[in-house]
Amino acid sequence: MAKIFIGVAWPYANGPIHVGHVAGCYLPPDIFARYHRMIGNEVLMVSGSDEHGTPITVTAEQECVEPAVIAKRYHEINAKALNDLGISFDLFFETSDPNHKIVVHDIFLKLLEKEYIYKKTMELLFCTQCNRFLPDRYVEGQCPHCDHEAARGDQCDECGKPLDTIELIGPKCKLCGSYPELRETEHFFFKLSAFQERLIEYTADKEHWRHNTKNFIRNWLTGGLRDRAITRDIRWGVDIPLDGFEDKRIYVWFEAVIGYLSTSKEWSRRSGDPDKWKEFWQDTKVKHYYFLGKDNIPFHTIIWPAILLGYGGLNLPYDVPANEYLRFEGEQFSKSRGVTIDVPDLLKHYDPDQLRYYLAINMPENRDADFSWDDFENRINTELVGTLGNFIHRALTFTAKNFGEIPTLDETKLTAEDHEALQMIDKTFKDVSVNIEKCQFKNAIKNIMALAHFGNRYFDKKAPWSLLKTDRDACANALHLNLRLVKALAVLTYPFMPNAALRLWNMIGYPDPIENAAWSAGVEGLTQGAKLAHPVPLFKKIVVNGQDKIKEKKIEGVIDMMKFTDFQKVNLRIGKVTKVEDHPDADKLYVLQVDFGNEQRQLVAGLKGYYEKEEILNKNIVVVMNLEPAKLRGIDSNGMLLAADDGKGGVALLIPDPDRNIAIGSRVK
Ligand SMILES: [Zn+2]
Ligand SMILES: [Zn+2]
Fold this sequence. Notes:
Blueprint: E1 3-8, H1 19-38, E2 42-49, H2 54-63, H3 67-84, E3 91-94, H4 98-113, E4 117-127, E5 132-133, E6 139-142, E7 151-152, E8 169-173, E9 181-190, H5 196-204, H6 211-223, E10 228-229, E11 231-233, E12 248-250, H7 252-255, H8 259-270, H9 277-281, E13 287-293, H10 297-311, E14 322-323, E15 326-328, H11 343-349, H12 352-361, E16 369-371, H13 373-402, H14 416-437, H15 441-462, H16 464-470, H17 472-493, H18 498-507, H19 546-555, H20 564-567, E17 572-582, E18 590-595, E19 600-605, H21 613-616, E20 620-624, E21 630-632, E22 635-637, E23 640-641, E24 643-645, E25 651-653, E26 667-668
Parallel strand pairs: 1-2, 1-13, 2-3, 13-14, 15-16
Antiparallel strand pairs: 4-5, 4-9, 6-7, 6-8, 9-10, 11-12, 17-18, 17-20, 17-26, 18-19, 20-23, 21-22, 24-25
Helix pairs in contact: 2-3, 4-8, 12-13, 13-15, 13-17, 14-15, 14-17, 15-17, 16-17, 17-18
The chain binds zinc ion (2 copies).
One zinc ion is lined by residues 127, 129-130, 173, 175-176, 178.
C-alpha cells in the first residue's frame, strides 16, 4: 500500500464552476483518487476556493459589496456543486481561512530569511482617473509574446505565458477605459532566477509529463526565469507579516498554491492527528499529482516547485496532468459573454453520473474537446443507455425472471466463448488500470465501453432464451458468465460513475457500499445462489430541454433584454456604426466597425435576417463595453451591442432617440 497526494487546482470564488472546469480538472483527479483508494492506496486529495483573486474584487466592486461576501457565496455554491458531482475531496478549503494565512506567513518569512524574497522599488501602472494602482485583472493590453490583443495583466490566455501588468503593450484600465501611467511603489520579489538550475534538474526526468506541459516548461526555462513581484497594492488578500506594509497584500499567484500545503495541515488538524500531513509531504516515496487546466501549468511546474525548493524538505510535484480546454461548440467558455453551462444548473436536470460519463469520454486530454448539447444527448442515449445500460439490464432481467438468483457455474462445461469472456474481463481490468495510472482517463472509459459492447455480443451469441428450453445447465452457465461481466462493469465504472456503480453492486447481491470492495473483486467469482433484487434500469434516456439549447444564441451576439439591475454593472456607451460586412463563415452574423469618438471597435453581431445592412449603417447603437473580447467564428468581437427580443420571434436593436443628439462615446446610465 502506497500513499498518494492529489492536489486539484483551486477554482476562483467569483462564479459557479462550469462544465469546462469539471472536464479540465475536477473529474480527472476524482477518477484517479477513487481508483487508488480501491486498489488499497491511501489518498489525500485536497483543493479549495481561491478567494483572493482580483476577479473577486472586480465582481465585488460591480455589486457594491465586500469581497468576502462574493468569496463566501461562491465558495458555498461550488463546494456544494463539487459534492453533488461526487468529487471526493478529503478537504475543500478556503484561502481566506486564518489557518491558511499562518502557513503562507511561515513560507514568506522563511524565504525572506533565506533571501529568496527581497524588497525592491518598482514602477507600476497607476490610473489617475480612478486614483489607484491597477493590479493584474484591472488591466488589459496586447501580449508582448504572441501579440494577442486582449491579454490580461496576469497572464495571456492565448499563449499561456504569465505576465506583469507593465509588460502589456498599450495597457488600458479596465475600470474606466483610460490609459494608466507608471508610478513608483515598493514591493517584495520572489527570486525565481535563483531556481533556474534546480528546476532544469527537477524537470529533466519528467518524461511522463504530457507534451503540452513539457513544451511549455522547455520554452520557459530556456527563455530564462526572472524574479517576480509577490505583493501588490490592494487591500483584499493575505497580509504581509512585517510592519509598514499595511496597504499591500501577497499576490494570489504566490499565495494560492500554498493552499495545497495549508489544506493538508488543516486536514490533519481536523482529523485529530496534527502531524499526519508530514507522512504525505516529507516521505520522499509519496508521489504528488496535481490536476489542472493548461492555463495553470506555469504555477504548478515552475512557481510552486520553486517555492517548495526554496522552503526545503517538502515533496515536489511528480506528475502534473494538465488538460486542454473543453469548448462550447467551438467557443471558449466565458462567464462574462454568457457562454457558460454552470454545474449547479446542470445538476438540476441531469444525473451527475451521466454528466461524469460524457465529460470522461469527451475529456480534453491531449487536445481541446467540444461540448455540444446534441452530442451530450446522443452519447448518453446511445452509449450509456443503449450499450452499457442495455447489456446490464438484459442480463439482469433475464436471469432474475428465470432463475431469481445467481445461477451456479459448472466450470467443466466452459466453451471457447466463455473462456473468451473471462479473458476479456481480465484484459479490461489490466488495460483500465494502466490507463488510469497514466492519467489517460478517456482511454480507460473506452476500454470499459468495449467490455459492455462485448457483453451485448456475448449475450446474443449465447442466446439464453433458446438454451432455457433445450439445456437449462448450459443456460445457467451462460447467465452466470454474463453476470460476471456485469460485476466487472460495476467495479470498473465505480471511479467514473460511483452512484450507478453502487446501484448495480446492490442489484447483483452485494449489500455493502462498493467503495469498500477491492478493485480485484471485479475479476473474482460471484456468490452463487445469492438472491437477485428486482432489476431497475441503471440509466434513463435524456431529452435536452430547449431552454438549455437557447444559450447558444448568446454566442451569436443576440442578447436577451437585460434585467434592470444588470445595467448597473455594465459599461454601456453610444457608438456609431461606420461599416457593416457579412461574416465570412457564419450565416447569421455581421461584422460591424463602431466609432466611439476616442476609439474604434469591431463587433460581431447576430442581426442578419433581422436587419438589412443599410438599416444599421451610420446608426448610433448602445454597446456593452466591459466584456471579455471574444472570437466569434474566427473574427474578433470587442463588445456586444444591445438588442431586445421584440416578442414576435424577432430582434429589436436599441437605438438611442436621434432627436436627442447624444454624442458618440457617451456613457449610458
Ligand atoms: Zn500571448
Ligand atoms: Zn481607471
